[in-house]
Design brief:
Length: about 575
């Protein structure tokens, strides 16, 4: 008889079930420990189960732009808003179009819900505008303030000192906070503290706006603007074009309103390719890193080169989102290369918020909030309850079938299902903390469907074992010989299920992706459980008397299965028959 080839175990050889069981036990303990360490002991729930906020945004036509509200721009806006909200770590934020000019944003209840609501309300276009003048945004204590004197042409003089000056913007006289600074990445050079033309007492004169700012109307609007009044603030630059000089409001680093007179747009939000708030370990401070596109890098270098030659506040540029100034850093030198960083009095949240706005804020359309409603979880809770009841009934029917048909083998199937449930639950809980995965009703349906997929794998293996026993083999070799055949069938079946889940996840959006994700995850876990638990535990139980001797309640009774006489006995009888003539 030829010896088996080295490196290849015979089909009936015994494996090492203890190692596989140890691996899956360690994995279960590690996942459970990680769940408690992260303090995320339950899966995060979607808006249909946990409740949340639903925001309806309506697109508005802009002056001079015909047919801007079209499917292409709406779909682009949906994509940007979705990335922007999910960039805040909000789980399962759902963004979709409704009709021709509406976008629905569903934000599940969670730790970042309020922050997401604030930023969803500011989802219009992003611009970089040079600062012409700046002043406190709310009325100050009485102080002699000269008014601008129009020239003979009716326009304010732009000679920087020959005409009557505009309201000053120095920190000492007007209470303005020191602005953030923008520098080239890796070159944290402080801004100029004594620029050319500054007064010796530290008070830099505020230049008079150029003639492009318009005549006295824009000056009056700037002087009378009170940023604390919402109606004035929100309508200050309504309908303005990118080529217009505008007035705008924004809060400074000490959370006080400031008003700005801003020039035409130099750089657009679409020119920013990436932005993020990070902690600079060398300076122990939070900064915002910017990266521009090729065209944006050229525009930014030109703008910073011009601004760096001017004095405060004209050496600042304002980052304007939805007509509001979110930041107005100063510039001290030309910034080329397409990378820059903004530093100042940032904390972690303000730096990350600004980075998020810069990354995802440039939309092709302007939106206004149509409605904001709170979604309760009552209806979803009732549906979840009904779904869990249906799942429990289905699981009970599966167990009854297993017990009635497979008897003792049902114990292995039930324990395997329990192991699969533990792995699924802990992984879902950790994914909620790690990637923001949220459990919704379709995801629950996917988990329920997975019960049938997992049970099917057990049945395939059990039937292969029974086939071997019916061929006359005892249980221990039958368990090992049945495994290669069952393994191929299980892998092919699970591959098809996983492929279907992957395709469904790629081609769909919204809640259907939750179903596909859960189905794919549980399909992978089915392979893990069958290979590392079901097969090893079956090998161990085959060594017991209850299963090994074919007890009637084991589900492997040779008589009930109609097994042939043992192959070993048949061989012995044949050998004896061949020996008898020699004895005669």
């Amino acid at each position: 008889m030829a010896a088996p080839k080295k490196g290849r175990r015979p089909a009936g050889a015994q494996g090492r079930p203890g190692r596989a069981l140890a691996v899956i036990l360690i994995a279960m303990v590690a996942l459970t420990a990680g769940m408690f360490i992260s303090k995320q002991t339950t899966p995060r729930l979607g808006i249909d189960l946990a409740g949340g906020t639903s925001i309806t945004l309506k697109a508005k036509n802009e002056p001079g732009k015909k047919d801007a509200i079209n499917p292409t721009n709406m779909n682009t806006a949906v994509s940007i808003i979705e990335r922007r909200v999910n960039g805040l770590g909000v789980s399962e934020a759902e963004v979709q179009t409704q009709g021709r000019d509406h976008i629905i944003v569903n934000i599940p209840k969670g730790t970042n819900e309020k922050q997401a609501r604030e930023q969803v309300g500011t989802t219009a276009q992003l611009y970089f505008r040079p600062v012409i003048a700046a002043a406190p945004g709310t009325p100050q204590a009485p102080e002699p303030t000269p008014t601008p004197t129009p020239s003979a042409s009716g326009k304010p003089k732009a000679d920087g000192g020959k005409g009557t000056p505009t309201p000053k913007a120095s920190a000492s006289s007007q209470g303005r906070a020191v602005p953030e600074t923008v520098t080239a990445t890796g070159n944290p050079t402080p801004p100029k503290t004594d620029p050319v033309g500054a007064k010796k007492d530290g008070k830099a004169p505020t230049p008079t706006p150029s003639a492009d700012a318009g005549a006295g109307d824009l000056q009056k609007k700037f002087a009378s603007l009170n940023c604390a009044v919402e109606t004035q603030r929100t309508t200050a630059n309504l309908g303005a074009k990118t080529t217009d000089t505008i007035v705008a409001c924004g809060k400074n680093s000490v959370d006080q309103w400031e008003k700005y007179l801003l020039g035409p747009v130099d750089v657009e939000g679409k020119d920013v390719s990436d932005a993020k708030g990070v902690l600079d370990p060398q300076r122990a401070m939070w900064i915002v890193q910017l990266k521009f596109t090729d065209k944006g890098a050229d525009k930014f270098a030109k703008t910073t080169g011009e601004l760096s030659k001017k004095q405060s506040p004209q050496n600042q540029f304002a980052i304007v989102l939805d007509g509001d100034v979110v930041s107005a850093p100063s510039v001290s030198s030309t910034i080329a290369g397409g990378q820059a960083e903004i530093s100042g009095s940032f904390n972690q949240q303000s730096a990350q918020d600004l980075g998020n706005m810069l990354s995802y804020g440039a939309l092709p359309l302007t939106f206004q909030e149509d409605s904001v409603t709170t979604v309760t979880a009552a209806l979803g809770g009732e549906q979840l309850k009904a779904g869990l009841i249906a799942g429990a009934i289905g699981l009970a029917l599966v167990i009854i079938y297993l017990v009635a048909y497979y008897r003792g083998l049902a114990f292995i199937a039930i324990v395997s299902l329990l192991v699969s449930a533990i792995l699924t639950y802990t992984i879902m809980a950790l994914l909620g903390k790690g990637i923001g995965f949220a459990l919704n009703l379709p995801a629950v349906c996917g988990a329920i469907v997975a019960i049938g997929i997992t049970a099917d794998s057990f049945i395939v293996y059990f039937e292969r074992i029974r086939d071997e026993i019916m061929e006359g083999r005892t249980l221990r070799p039958a368990v090992e010989r049945a495994w290669p055949r069952a393994r191929r069938t299980i892998l092919v079946s699970d591959f098809v299920s996983f492929l279907a889940a992957a395709v469904l996840f790629i081609v769909t959006v919204g809640k259907v992706q939750g179903f596909a994700f859960t189905l794919g995850l549980t399909t992978l876990l089915d392979v893990v459980v069958v290979f590392l638990f079901t097969k090893p535990i079956m090998t161990l139980l085959a060594r017991t008397k209850f299963f090994g001797n074919g007890h009637p309640w084991s589900g492997l009774d040779p008589k009930r299965l109609g097994a042939k006489p043992p192959l070993r006995s048949t061989r012995r009888s044949t050998s004896a028959a061949r020996v008898e003539p020699q004895e005669v």
